[in-house]
Amino acid sequence: MGNDNATLELFALQTASDAVPVDEVIRLLANVHARNAVVYLHDHPAATLDELADALTAAAASADETIATPSDRDRVLIRLHHDILPRLADLDFIEFDSETNTVTETRIPDAVVAALGIDE
């Protein structure tokens, strides 16, 4: 994922302020798991909650140079399900089906992609 230490390019968000609720996006992207979720979903627009939890747990362990535990994964999974994915859905960045635990569609705005420095 590699964006743990990336500087959020606020200029890209500010210039797109009509299309993107900048303050809400900045609050969301202040969390490393949320940033990594956006990066993962940009590359995998249809993902399951389990896939996403695995990827984010691995990214966090890699960044911290530790070994992830099942409880680490459980914490990430709960945060994704109850906080991050609903907020991304509220921003209309994704469609999240909480019954099947799948992201069925991803619409991450270009300004957010640019702000995170995601390479196409």
From TrEMBL:
Pfam families: DUF7344
Residue stretches making up the DUF7344 domain: 27-104
InterPro entries recorded: DUF7344 (IPR055768)
Protein name: DUF7344 domain-containing protein
Annotated organism of origin: Natrinema salsiterrestre
Domain of life where this protein originates: Archaea
